[in-house]
Recover the amino acids of this structure.
């Protein structure tokens, strides 16, 4: 009798552990618990929630781009540099070349896309490891932004000002900024593309096993190059949103941001070997990182380096969780 | 006879790195007349080549450790953070002494710092070998958290020390720079340890196939842990050199981005990131190439803001030259002129030509 009654629970537990959505659920729970604790301890006002998106919109966009590449088993280290370069290029085009803002933004996005595609080509055609190819991208784009200007350029254009100051009112005196809205839209589009289109299935297939994907006749090369182009475009867009956020371009912006983006993807439960993960997870990962920053500054007595230590500890916890799940599955 | 000798030289695994290094050094000659001259000035060795060596030593040390880790199929992103922690611990300890110039105090500081580094290496090795975390992520944890720990030790300040014995580590012993001596000892001992004992073979075997090595009776996990500890200790020594040279501990900037330079040096030196094969000599050449490149950029008068673009361009070229797929594609037009080997069926030739015309 006992064995029979025990079996369904074990089966249920097994099914739960084997469920690919578990890491996302854990991240969401962690976020909710942290937020609840924060609200209780620091009596957060209503704007703290939307502010997580307002202050980290650029990181959400960058992390979504990184999710694409990581899901296919690759990695993109050029994210931070592309963000810095895009901001510089935009500032340069608007302030020095006096291009209209939409045209400048378009040029920036196309440049980011082309940069990503070039790295993708290096990886696909010449078998350069993604790590090394995107590392050269990191150097190249940081260098290019220094070539554009060694000093920061502040962006003062009527359209940029109005976009930066635009607030979409929400319930009870809270609001979202343009950057936050763009971030939400990007996440929605990415979720649609990854989870509901043939292209998305191909990404998961390549991340699961590139060899099998090729033998199945999937266009592996084209998909991989597209992925890096998407990541480049997302980074460029993140750079534009970052410019809106601080209204200047600086050649030193975004240094190390690729690590934040990758950490957010890991905390969001995406496997770094590729093949499993969700866009929602990465968004939640960014929100958790943002919440750590908010709570540490609300604490007041804790120094800023605790952010780094907490981020490291969180990444560790999620990696261990992934290991437990992987072992259970095998 | 001579042709086959020439072919052997070209095929040697150190040929491409050495050729690139020599080319880079020669590029300097027209811009700096006495580039290859070495003199003794104020009792110290002096000259362009000496400064390349001096500035290159931390990178050489870090890259040697990285080579072993990469040979086992891993990677260590935390070396920069480990460097910062080593400097922070040493300066923190020396700063607390009443007499900063006491030799014993400095020795204790060095031992403390290196002991802490081996613990950090053990941690990385434990995560990779025991828990089975991917190396890039296992070490990413320490890369992010490590700088926080270093800042925690220094209390967020730059600790400055005035200690004669400590500054020798980054200074001179008699006429020779200490760093160059340390690097020479490290390179020779690692080369001997890996090539005169079985360690090198075991490392390559673990990198080739960890599971097969384990079944063949090699303690793969232990080998992996050993290489991560070695890598962290080498990074720690590099961190001490760096901090002693500047007489301070800067938790934010010590060893910043050195992991990227070190990985590049390893790859340029001909060690594949996939593991299973490594070359200490190649790595040393790779590190020297990167350092020479930085010097060259200054001497040939490229504006300082274009440094990174130039560096990126050279690195991309080097990576492409080393990619067999790229070489095959570039060399293809030259190969075609040769008469086809008799074994090649004619049909293949005819099917290839229209494709070539079409493209």
């Amino acid at each position: 009798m006992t064995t029979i009654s025990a079996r369904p629970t074990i089966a249920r537990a097994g099914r739960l552990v084997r469920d690919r959505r578990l890491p996302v659920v854990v991240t969401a729970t962690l976020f909710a618990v942290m937020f609840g604790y924060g609200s209780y301890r620091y009596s957060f006002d209503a704007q703290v929630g939307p502010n997580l998106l307002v202050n980290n919109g650029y990181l959400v966009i960058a992390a979504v781009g990184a999710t694409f590449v990581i899901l296919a088993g690759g990695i993109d280290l050029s994210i931070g540099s592309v963000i810095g370069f895009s901001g510089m290029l935009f500032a340069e085009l608007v302030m020095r070349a006096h291009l209209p803002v939409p045209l400048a933004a378009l040029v920036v996005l196309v440049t980011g896309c082309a940069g990503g595609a070039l790295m993708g080509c290096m990886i696909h055609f010449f078998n350069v490891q993604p790590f090394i190819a995107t590392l050269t991208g990191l150097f190249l784009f940081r260098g290019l932004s220094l070539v554009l200007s060694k000093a920061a350029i502040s962006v003062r254009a009527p359209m940029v000002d109005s976009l930066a100051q635009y607030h979409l009112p929400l319930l009870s005196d809270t609001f979202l900024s343009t950057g936050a809205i763009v971030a939400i839209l990007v996440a929605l589009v990415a979720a649609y593309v990854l989870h509901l289109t043939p292209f998305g299935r191909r990404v998961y297939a390549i991340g699961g096993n590139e060899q099998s994907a090729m033998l199945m006749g999937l266009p592996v090369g084209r998909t991989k190059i597209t992925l890096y182009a998407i990541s480049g475009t997302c980074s460029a867009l993140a750079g534009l949103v970052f410019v809106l956020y601080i209204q200047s371009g600086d050649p030193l912006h975004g240094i190390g941001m690729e690590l934040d983006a990758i950490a957010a993807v890991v905390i969001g439960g995406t496997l770094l070997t590729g093949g499993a993960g969700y866009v929602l997870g990465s968004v939640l990962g960014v929100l958790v990182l943002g919440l750590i920053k908010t709570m540490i500054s609300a604490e007041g007595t804790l120094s800023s380096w605790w952010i780094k230590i907490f981020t490291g500890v969180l990444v560790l916890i999620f990696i261990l969780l992934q290991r437990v799940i992987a072992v259970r599955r095998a | 006879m001579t042709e086959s000798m020439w072919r052997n030289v070209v095929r040697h695994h150190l040929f491409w790195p050495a050729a690139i290094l020599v080319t880079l050094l020669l590029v300097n000659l027209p811009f700096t007349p006495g580039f290859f001259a070495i003199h003794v000035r104020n009792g110290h060795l002096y000259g362009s080549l000496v400064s390349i060596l001096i500035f290159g030593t931390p990178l050489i040390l870090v890259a040697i450790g990285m080579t072993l880790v990469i040979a086992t199929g891993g990677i260590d992103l935390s070396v920069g953070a480990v460097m910062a922690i080593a400097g922070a611990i040493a300066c923190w300890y020396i700063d607390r002494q009443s007499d900063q110039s006491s030799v014993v105090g400095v020795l204790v500081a060095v031992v403390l710092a290196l002991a802490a580094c081996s613990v950090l290496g053990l941690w990385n090795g434990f995560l990779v070998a025991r828990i089975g975390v991917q190396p890039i992520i296992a070490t990413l944890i320490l890369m992010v958290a490590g700088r926080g720990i270093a800042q925690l030790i220094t209390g967020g300040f730059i600790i400055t020390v005035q200690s004669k014995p400590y500054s020798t580590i980054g200074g001179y012993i008699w006429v020779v720079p200490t760093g160059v001596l340390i690097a020479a000892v490290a390179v020779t001992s690692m080369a001997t340890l890996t090539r005169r004992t079985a360690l090198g073979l075991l490392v390559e075997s673990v990198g080739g196939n960890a599971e097969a090595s384990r079944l063949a009776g090699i303690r793969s996990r232990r080998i992996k842990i050993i290489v991560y500890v070695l890598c962290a200790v080498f990074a720690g020594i590099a961190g001490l050199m760096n901090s002693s040279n500047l007489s301070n501990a800067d938790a934010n900037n010590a060893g910043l981005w050195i992991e990227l330079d070190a990985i590049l040096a390893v790859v340029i030196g001909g060690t594949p990131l996939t593991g299973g094969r490594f070359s200490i000599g190649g790595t040393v050449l790779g590190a020297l190439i990167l350092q020479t490149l930085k010097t060259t950029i200054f001497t040939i008068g490229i504006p300082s803001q274009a440094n990174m673009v130039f560096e990126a361009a050279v690195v991309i070229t080097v990576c492409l030259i080393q990619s067999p797929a790229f070489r095959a594609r570039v060399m293809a037009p030259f190969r075609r002129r040769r008469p086809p080997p008799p074994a090649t069926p004619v049909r293949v030739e005819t099917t290839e030509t229209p494709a070539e015309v079409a493209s």
